[in-house]
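User: I've been trying to design a sequence by hand for this structure and keep getting stuck. Would you show me what you'd pick, starting by listing the structure so we're on the same page?

Assistant: Good idea, let's start from the same input. This is the structure you sent:
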């Protein structure tokens, strides 16, 4: 596909918006001062000039920062310099961070005062974004030879081999989205996605390229759905991005929350499965809001969109994108027949960094297009297409799943579990229930006895992000196998609703507050018996379930409890002490 916007780059559009309205607000961070387009552009130019003074090699540059305006300065400054930014989450395990920096061959790291100590051992030049020397550089727009085909970013996602894989995306891939976005200069867009997630880049650059305002939502606000809704109202946010499960939970908090969403124009819920209950909630409480599912991937960008009221799980392809539903011979299947979805167009990534064979496997020549070099991306999604052009999701041809909005290859988790000295065999699956689906790991110990859940969680935490750690671990005597010797995933036993094996002994709740908290945890975590000294995380708790627990505690006791309390050694016993200091105990 030919990009109708020509050879312009992402920063060209932002520079144009800066010239038109330099004093307009570009970035707001909840609790901090706003940054104008002029200040953003000037600081990005200073960083780009500083990078040019360091080296003209333009190798990928790792960005490891907290959520701040400085992070956006970093992404824009790297784009102006002409290199690809490699966003890295500072909360990832250190071994994963080091692996990515080595794979990307980054010789420069951009950090802040919080993240700098994490990377001091790496043999790269570290540039602090709050370094006063940056302010001595020129604020003039650079005249570099960056083109729309240049790499804009490299996003690392879960990989089957046990190593994350880097996906190279271009300026052209982002610019092509201007042809269909609804964002206008008067809009205020939430940014509440980790910078390390591919979709984050769209939520960052599209508003700035349109001259709109971005509100950076801190993690502690994003994870507390009530406070998140308060921020939406206080900042007059018009465009909200949120996962379907989080939106459903947010709206379930009642009228005190739904009224705060009334000024929204649009809500983007990603391509996760949308429940019929969420559709009903949106219809009843957000009648004037356009709720949009955006289907896509890091490799292909946004492929198709649909309003959730329309019913299709994927919808119609966006402008500039071609979709094909093909069989194993790459022949187009009939309407309403199942095939794999292939995607073509200007939004495609260049491929996988340092992995030409996998790139050739997933990015294939387009036999339906006459232009030399045209490619198709094999999504791995099994779909059907209707007579009206809509696409409906059926399933996956591989073991890639979505967990709380993150893409996870179950094979990567298994590869790390197999390295555990006491694990003989393992299999990881995602539960099939529509909402709150958990990751479940089945393990066969090498010796007689049980492997404890808390030990396996602690082991995996050294290698993978929290969202990739299974909530449930089940010990098996042996794996069910097919005749060919492969693990028969469909024959794995169901997860019993019982307390996992933990280091601490069970101690039951006493008193009205502990009993009420135990009931809340039991209902949310689907565990029949929970001790007051059991750790929330070790029981399989995660941010999604933490949000539910916090909301129920607020509803039951009228007191706010932070997610941090649940994640940092949170037990029923400790929460009870916190709650009893401010409220009267309820009657049992």
């Amino acid at each position: 596909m030919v990009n109708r916007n020509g050879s312009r780059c992402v920063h060209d559009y932002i520079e144009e918006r800066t010239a038109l309205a330099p004093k307009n607000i570009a970035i707001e961070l909840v609790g901090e001062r706003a940054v104008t387009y002029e200040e953003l552009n000037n600081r990005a130019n200073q960083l780009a000039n500083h990078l040019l003074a360091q080296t003209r090699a333009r190798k990928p540059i790792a960005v490891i920062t907290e959520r701040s305006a400085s992070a956006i300065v970093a992404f824009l400054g790297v784009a102006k310099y002409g290199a690809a930014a490699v966003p890295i989450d500072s909360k990832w395990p250190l071994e994963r961070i080091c692996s990515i920096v080595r794979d990307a061959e980054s010789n420069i790291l951009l950090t802040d005062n919080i993240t700098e100590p994490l990377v001091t051992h790496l043999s790269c030049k570290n540039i602090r974004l709050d370094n006063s020397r940056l302010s001595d550089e020129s604020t003039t727009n650079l005249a570099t030879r960056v083109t729309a085909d240049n790499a804009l970013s490299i996003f690392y996602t879960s990989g089957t081999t046990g190593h994350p894989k880097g996906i190279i995306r271009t300026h052209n891939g982002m610019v092509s989205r201007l042809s269909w976005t609804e964002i206008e200069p008067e809009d205020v867009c939430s940014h509440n996605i980790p910078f390390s997630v591919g979709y984050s880049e769209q939520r960052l650059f599209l508003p700035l390229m349109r001259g709109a305002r971005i509100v950076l939502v801190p993690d502690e606000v994003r994870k507390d759905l009530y406070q998140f809704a308060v921020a939406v109202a206080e900042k007059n946010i018009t465009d909200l991005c949120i996962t379907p499960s989080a939106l459903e939970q947010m709206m379930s908090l009642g009228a005190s929350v739904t009224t705060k969403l009334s000024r929204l124009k649009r809500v983007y819920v990603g391509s996760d499965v949308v429940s019929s209950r969420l559709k009903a909630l949106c219809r009843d409480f957000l009648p004037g809001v356009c709720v949009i599912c955006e289907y896509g991937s890091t490799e292909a960008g946004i492929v198709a969109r649909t309003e959730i009221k329309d019913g299709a799980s994927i919808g119609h392809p966006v402008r500039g994108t071609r979709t094909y539903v093909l069989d194993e011979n790459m022949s187009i299947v009939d309407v309403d027949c199942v095939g794999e979805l292939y995607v073509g167009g200007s939004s495609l990534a260049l491929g996988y960094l340092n992995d030409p064979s996998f790139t050739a496997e997933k990015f294939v020549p387009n036999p339906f297009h006459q232009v030399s070099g045209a490619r198709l991306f094999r999504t791995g999604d099994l779909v059907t297409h209707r007579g009206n052009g809509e696409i409906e999701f059926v399933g996956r041809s591989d073991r890639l799943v979505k967990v709380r909005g993150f893409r996870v290859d179950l094979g990567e988790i298994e590869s790390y579990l197999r390295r555990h000295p006491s694990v003989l065999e393992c299999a990881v699956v995602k539960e099939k229930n529509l909402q709150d689906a958990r990751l479940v790991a089945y393990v066969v110990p090498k010796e007689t006895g049980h492997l404890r859940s808390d030990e396996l969680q602690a082991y995996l935490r050294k290698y993978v992000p929290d969202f990739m750690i299974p909530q449930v671990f089940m010990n098996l005597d042996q794996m069910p196998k097919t005749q060919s010797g492969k693990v028969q995933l469909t024959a794995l036993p169901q997860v019993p609703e019982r307390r996992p094996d933990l280091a601490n002994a069970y101690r039951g709740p006493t008193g009205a507050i502990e009993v009420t908290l135990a009931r809340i945890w039991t209902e949310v975590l689907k565990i029949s018996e929970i001790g007051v000294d059991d750790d929330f995380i070790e029981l399989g708790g995660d941010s999604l379930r933490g949000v539910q627990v916090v909301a129920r505690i607020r509803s039951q006791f009228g007191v706010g409890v932070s997610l941090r309390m649940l994640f940092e050694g949170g037990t029923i016993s400790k929460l009870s002490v916190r709650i009893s200091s401010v409220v009267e105990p309820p009657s049992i």
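That's my pick for every position. To get oriented when you compare it with your attempt: Confidence is low (pLDDT under 50) at residues 1-6. The CA atoms of residues 194 and 428 lie 25 Å apart.
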